[in-house]
Write a structure and sequence with these properties.
The radius of gyration is 24 Å and the shape is globular. It has 17 helices and 22 strands. The strands form six sheets. It has a seven-stranded mixed beta sheet with strand order 12-11-15-16-19-18-17, covered by helices on one side. Helix 10 packs antiparallel against helix 12. The protein folds into three domains: 134 residues, Methyltransferase, Cobalt-precorrin-4 Transmethylase, Domain 2; 165 residues, Heat Shock Protein 90 (2-Layer Sandwich), CATH 3.30.565; 85 residues, Orthogonal Bundle (Arc Repressor Mutant, subunit A). With 494 residues, the protein is of the alpha+beta class.
Length: 494
């Protein structure tokens, strides 16, 4: 079996030697006693990687395989404990088997907040972790973060009532789906906001309140527009009309719904292919573009007035995003160092299951693009504007084959409908193909075809035609899936 890109990255990390962004720790049966000092220091500096189960020279010693679950569970729980990290910063370790030995990779982002471990501030240098006790040194760390990470700007006038109340049940469902025992689920909404780092205090000025990240993630639309009137995501299709556009979606809502709306635009206009991974049938389009959309939303510099653009051409997708760069030039999958531009927003999306570990987007897009489009070499260019180019099939074969099968399924199974209704049924069916298991409210937001009653009517037509079916014990827990008959008509990539 070919070696995964993640294992290749870990092996590459092991050859680099310890430094300001890399720490090796022996950890055979339990967490090292000084682990959270290193985590705190990396959060306060530039982030980095910690590998448990390796000696100081990067030789793999290994972690006791029978203790892995205990060690990783303790790490997740303690990273949410203010006695270990204040403010808390949940980390999710990754476990790998290399040369028949188990190693744990902890990816620590740089944080936009100042952290303490056991009441002490730690910083990091090439020589390791060190305590920071002088007030002026602590102020320097805080000021550096405040000026670099604008997501942490405090808005004292923002109140809890300025947040969209419909988003809290949605985000709890997303968190629960991603991690059933997530510690945030036991908190009330205001406690959750604090644990997520969306409320903070400026220890230099005494100012306190909700942050720009909180407004962007959960604010009412009118509040977002008052705080950031320039904020927008402009999604365009330029295939037939390359001077203007064939279709356009203008997004100016909270980042949780913006993610769904932009993925819905992708589902509406780009074809899909499916592949099997183990015994799971997965959408290539979703695997690729969930990473692209998440990257756009998580890493944008939101105080910059430049709009985000997402443009679908006949043979490529191009995106541009205002950026606070950490280096310049083309990112190479072999040697790039992922760096979060909005650490709090990135952490929040991780808890929702919409972002995996930092840097996974570049890896996953490179992994799946050849299967999807027959093309290679997507480009990611770092600069004041972050640019991505994702190649699509040049000859239109992917579009024709997949869209033809879907159109044929609609025409063959649904009689008497107007062309306009068939077009809407096709859009909805494509959304279900790439987002199986969801319910009517989710499909309404993805497709924007009308209200929930309209979507319910279209859903029933697709069910009557035996193209989709409902699976689940109850309306609250089940979802809509393709029928076996439809799956047989669609191409599956092995």
């Amino acid at each position: 079996m070919p070696e995964s890109q993640n294992i290749k990255r870990v092996k590459n990390i092991l050859t680099q030697g310890e430094g300001i962004r890399l720490e090796f720790k022996k950890s055979h049966t339990q967490l090292p006693g000084n682990l959270f000092e290193s985590i705190c220091a990396m959060l306060n500096r530039d982030g980095g990687n910690i590998l448990l189960g390796a000696d100081n020279d990067g030789n793999i010693i290994g972690v006791d395989a029978t203790k892995i679950e205990t060690i990783t569970t303790n790490l997740v729980n303690l990273s949410n404990n203010p006695e270990k990290l204040d403010p808390p910063f949940i980390l999710f370790p990754q476990v790998y088997n290399i040369d028949n030995k188990t190693i744990i990779h902890i990816q620590v982002p740089c944080s936009s907040q100042l952290h303490k471990s056991a009441g002490v501030v730690y910083d990091r240098s090439n020589d390791g972790d060190f305590k920071v006790t002088e007030p002026h040194q602590i102020a320097e760390i805080y000021n550096r973060k405040r000026t670099h990470y604008t997501e942490g700007i405090i808005y004292p006038g923002i109140q809890y009532s300025d947040f969209n109340p419909t988003l809290f049940p949605k985000l709890r469902n997303l968190i629960k789906s991603n991690e059933a025992n997530h510690p945030w689920l036991s908190l009330n909404d205001e406690q959750l906001l604090q644990k997520a780092g969306l409320w903070k205090r400026d220890y230099q000025t005494g100012q306190e309140g909700y942050t720009l990240a909180a407004i962007l993630l959960l604010g009412k639309d009118e509040v977002i527009q008052q705080v950031l009137p320039h904020y927008k995501i402009d999604a365009l299709v330029r295939i037939s009309n390359t001077d203007r556009y064939d279709d356009r979606l203008y997004i100016q809502t909270n980042l949780i719904d913006a993610y769904d709306q932009l993925l819905g635009f992708v589902a509406k206009h780009l074809p899909d292919k499916f592949y099997t991974e183990g015994d799971q049938r997965k959408s290539l389009r979703t695997a690729i573009f969930r990473e692209i959309v998440a990257n756009i939303i998580v890493h944008r510099e939101y105080t910059n007035a430049q709009p985000t653009t997402f443009i679908i051409y006949a043979n490529r997708v191009e995106t541009e995003n205002a950026n606070n760069p950490h280096g310049t030039g083309n990112l190479s999958i072999d040697d790039f160092s992922p760096f979060p531009k909005n650490p709090v927003i990135a952490k929040f999306f991780m808890q929702l299951g919409r972002v995996d570990e930092l840097g996974s987007g570049v890896i996953n897009v490179n992994k799946f693009i050849k299967k999807y489009s027959g093309q290679s070499n997507p480009t990611f260019i770092e600069g004041k504007t972050f640019k991505m180019t994702i190649p699509l099939a040049n000859d239109g074969a992917v579009v024709g084959a997949n869209d033809g099968a879907i159109d044929g399924a609609i025409d063959g199974a649904i009689e008497g409908a107007t062309e306009g209704v068939k077009e809407k049924l096709t859009i909805l069916l494509k959304a279900i193909i790439s987002n199986e298991g969801k319910r009517i409210p989710e499909y309404q937001k993805i497709t924007q075809l009308g209200g929930e009653r309209t979507i319910e009517r279209y859903i029933q037509q697709l069910r009557d035609a035996k193209l989709i079916e409902f699976k689940g014990e109850a309306a609250q827990t089940g979802g809509y899936y393709l029928t076996k008959q439809l799956k047989e008509k669609l191409k599956v990539i092995e």
